[in-house]
Amino acid sequence: MSRPRVTFQIGKNGVTDGTIELLNTAFKNRNQIKIALMKGAGHTKEKAEEIGQEIVNRMGKNYTFKKLGFTLFVNKWRREMR
């Protein structure tokens, strides 16, 4: 059984190298992470989709995301997703 999810926040600085490092560290012990998008990150549905795609692209092929409003749920899979 995996540990409960942890919540991160992304604000006006967007997705930085530091954000990706923190996510990589958190995924060592978890399979899902919840990311809340703050107003400074750009509060539009299109911007939320862009941020989700950027995170998944920078993390690698084992990751997918689901968008629910202005919250992203990023999942780590054992095998690569196509």
List the defining traits of the structure above:
82 residues, four-stranded mixed sheet
How would you explain this protein's 3D organization?
This protein has one domain (6-76): Translation Initiation Factor IF3 (2-Layer Sandwich). The chain has helices at residues 17-26, 45-59; strands spanning 6-10, 32-37, 63-68, 71-76. 15% of the residues are buried. With 82 residues, it is an alpha+beta fold. It has a four-stranded mixed sheet, covered by helices on one side.
Name the helicity range. Answer: 25-40%
Which stretches are low in confidence, meaning pLDDT under 50 for 5 or more residues running? Answer: none
Please trace the helix and strand order, writing H or E for each element.
Answer: EHEHEE
State Rg: 12 Å
The CATH H-level superfamily is YhbY-like
- Integer count of domains: 1
Give the structure's gist in a few sentences.
The protein has 82 residues and is an alpha+beta fold. The chain has helices spanning 17-26, 45-59, and strands at 6-10, 32-37, 63-68, 71-76.
List the topology elements.
Elements: E1 6-10, H1 17-26, E2 32-37, H2 45-59, E3 63-68, E4 71-76
Parallel strand pairs: 1-2
Antiparallel strand pairs: 2-4, 3-4
